[in-house]
Amino acid sequence: MLGDGDFRSLSEEELVEKAKEIPHAFGYLYEIYIDKIYNFIFYRTFDRDVSEDLTHTVFEKVLTNIKSYQKGTSSFAAWIFRIARNQLIDYYRKKKSLPLSEEMESKLFSEDDLLAQLVKGEKQEKVFMAVSNLSKDQREVINLRYKEDLSNKEIAQIIGRSEGAVKAILHRAVENLRRRLNHEES
């Protein structure tokens, strides 16, 4: 039997494999992802109770289905964020609020938290405005890439698009931001 120190020394993928056999190991995965998943959901619902409930549901699904996770098909991060994204979609479908209004869509894919970390001082408001003018897809990809620090491959698996499409969306988003910010400065 592995002790706590042994679990902490494992790589994430090794920890996932152990969690398939030893439920106690799942607790370490939970610690790694709880804040990331909660924030991912909260910045799309802006409701603490709903975010807590959906986060709980995500981890129930992860625990129930962890044995079906296969290392070669996607990273664990992509897999768990995909589950979180699907829970959000289910939540809004059950509320019968899809299709979303422009205002709500903008809130669901808000980048305020990400940009607060990336930009300091007076430029912050300009960056927020520039991001709010991006398309929903561009905002989502920017969020997953820079806030959640996921790879293009992982993002592609989460949003159900090709890696090339993610690269193109990300490139257009960055170019749009650069163009808007340069225009604001001149």
From TrEMBL:
It holds the Pfam family Sigma70_r4_2. Residues 29-96 form the RNA polymerase sigma-70 region domain. The keyword Transcription applies. One of its GO terms (biological process) is DNA-templated transcription initiation. Keywords: Sigma factor, Transcription, Transcription regulation. Residues 127-177 form the RNA polymerase sigma factor 70 region 4 type domain. Transmembrane segments: none annotated. The keyword Transcription applies. Belongs to the sigma-70 factor family. ECF subfamily. NCBIfam families: sigma70-ECF. This is RNA polymerase subunit sigma-24.
